[in-house]
Design goal:
The structure is a single chain. Helix content is 61%, strand content 9%. It contains 19 helices and ten strands. β9 and β10 form a beta hairpin.
């Protein structure tokens, strides 16, 4: 990372620390107070030792010793206050960044997330941002001390003995120069380690999710070896970084020790020949190590906070990714009523990063209110992309999508989706109760509406047969339910949603014929008074009430006549094989 990039990252992190500025201000104030108390402690200790060496009575040192104890206590209190407020600032920034990252990932949508490694995003949002703690609680306070303490010590020593001040002023810059040279190497190693950790997290998540398949095909040993290799590379990378950190500490300690020894030698010689007072010599010897200590500590904390900075760079990259609709018109257009407004595609083209040819090219079509539209086509033809455009997960690269004559890009995505219902191929069911999973469509819905929606979807019978009925906890992934039952619960969400435009992405894929028939009947009950768009491989005759049929092929969309045979239709045997 270049110095300019590191500066931009630091500035962005400080900008994200807005709500924690009071804590950072208290930390800085405590550091300044600690600097002053350190100078007072050195002066009092030098005075006590010089006075005692001169043979003064213990009574004469009473007030000096009391003052020294008071300064020590105050310095400890200032250090504790700086530590506590810095830790609180770190927690606030971590929470702020984590929330911003989660919100932006939701805005980016599943189309963007599908191109990422979920394990990397999870690692970034958890342990990655957790490693920002040392940056705010250790590194930033130490950087402040590295600026104030050497200046204060240098001024104090110079006022007491200008020769020692000159020696400190000449040798002091060596420490930050050496630290910067070593820090560049450390930053490069840390970035490499972060990439390895993100890859390890993503690969491990993929292996865990696909464990049944790997066991079925006897490929677990291969993945064990892959994970072992990635883990070993990460281990070697971490050890390389630690080696550089330890060597840098040795270099900095050696340079600071030599500089301190140089001051000590010249002070000792001048004291021996009577050219320097005993009290002044003690003050200089006590303060000289303090001039180098904050710089060495800042270098050490730089290494400790390197992981946090690397994670912050990646987090800012994600936050800087434009979400769908970010480049649309600034003024929000009113949301048309989709119960009476048509949807028009006007020369719409859609492409994805990394693909030279567009998925959809020059699409012209109109979906009228109340129509039941079936979208057919082979795998990869662009059927789901068509739904993704309607869901505002994907923005067209050309053409316009009009809703009631209004450019869809001008309508706020959240307000547009409030009129949509969506059923994906594999709906997400969470480890909540059945009722809570259905209520995801309308969180404030009363229990009677939830139960009515389940009955309309045809899910009430099996839900009531569960141990606790609607209060049964499904657990992670709802694995206790069959694929058909999970789809019926997701369909119940659509009935509860009661939206005028319903989008269903192959709702009967991966189901047996009986479950598929139950879903088709439920969708037929859902259709009256709504616009339905169903992506399906099945013959359109499997969907009671289906009207318009759109065929997607070669990036284009064509409308079939009602009596034409459906392209891409599956036989019952094909369906059984797919199930």
């Amino acid at each position: 990372m270049s110095a300019a990039a590191a500066g931009r990252t630091a500035a962005r992190l400080l900008a994200e620390a807005g709500p924690a500025r009071w804590h950072l201000a208290v930390t800085a104030a405590a550091g300044l107070a600690g600097t002053g108390l350190m100078l007072a402690q050195a002066w009092l200790l030098a005075h006590v030792l010089a006075t005692a060496a001169a043979g003064a009575a213990a009574a004469a040192l009473r007030w000096s010793l009391a003052g020294l104890l008071a300064v020590l206590a105050a310095r400890a209190a200032a250090a504790a206050a700086a530590e506590v407020t810095a830790l609180r600032a770190a927690v606030i920034v971590q929470q702020r960044l984590r929330s911003a990252l989660a919100r932006h990932c939701l805005r980016l949508g599943p189309a963007w997330l599908g191109r990422q490694r979920p394990g990397e995003i999870t690692t970034l949002a958890t342990s990655g941002l957790d490693s920002l703690g040392p940056y705010f609680s250790r590194y930033l306070p130490q950087v402040g001390l590295a600026v104030t303490v050497p200046v204060a010590v240098l001024a104090t020593v110079t006022s007491a003995d200008w020769i020692s001040g000159v020696i400190i002023a000449v040798t002091l810059p060596l420490v930050p120069v050496l630290a910067a040279l070593v820090g560049q190497r450390t930053a490069a190693l840390t970035r490499r380690n972060w990439r390895l950790l993100a890859r390890l997290g993503g690969h491990f998540l993929d292996v865990v999710q696909g464990l049944p398949t790997l066991r079925a095909f006897g490929r677990t040993a291969v993945q064990e070896r892959v994970i072992g290799e990635v883990t070993d590379r990460y281990r070697r990378g971490v050890m390389s970084t630690l080696r550089v950190a330890f060597l840098s500490a040795l270099v900095l300690e050696l340079s600071a020790a030599l500089a301190t020894a140089l001051v000590a030698v010249e002070v000792g010689l001048r004291l021996l020949y009577g050219h320097l007072g005993y009290s002044t010599a003690l003050l200089v010897l006590l303060l000289t190590p303090e001039a180098y200590l904050p710089l060495r500590n800042a270098s050490a904390q730089f290494h400790a906070s390197a992981d946090g900075r690397a994670a912050a760079v990646r987090a800012f990259d994600v936050l800087g990714t434009a979400a769908p609709g970010d480049h649309g018109p600034r003024r929000a257009a009113p949301v048309p009523d989709m119960r009476s407004s048509p949807i028009t595609f006007n020369r719409v083209s859609v492409g994805y990063p990394g693909r030279t040819a567009p998925v959809l090219r020059g699409v012209d079509l109109t979906i009228r209110p109340g129509e039941f539209v079936t979208v057919a086509g082979e795998n990869g033809a662009g059927k789901s992309t068509l739904l993704s455009v309607l869901l505002r997960f994907t923005e067209p690269v050309g053409g316009l999508v009009l809703a009631g004559g209004t450019d869809l890009a001008a309508i706020p995505a959240g307000r547009w989706r409030s009129q949509l219902g969506w059923l994906p191929q594999r709906p997400a069911l969470f480890g909540w109760s059945v009722a809570e999973n259905i209520a995801l469509a309308r969180p404030d819905a009363p229990r009677r509406d939830i139960e009515r929606a389940a009955a309309q979807a045809g899910a009430a019978a099996f839900i009531e047969a569960l141990p606790d009925g609607y209060d049964t906890m499904l657990g992670e992934g709802a694995l206790r339910l069959s694929a058909g039952q999970r789809q019926l619960i997701a369909l119940a969400r659509l009935f509860l949603r009661d939206a005028p435009l319903m989008l269903l992405d192959e709702p009967t894929a991966h189901l047996d014929q009986a479950s598929a028939a139950a879903i088709a009947e439920a969708v037929a009950r859902l259709a009256p008074g709504r616009t339905i768009v169903v992506v399906s491989h099945r013959d359109r005759r499997a969907w009671p009430g289906a009207g318009k049929v759109l065929t997607v092929a070669g990036g284009t969309v064509t409308e079939e006549s009602p009596d034409a045979p459906a392209i891409g239709a599956r036989t019952s045997a094909d369906t059984a094989v797919r199930a």
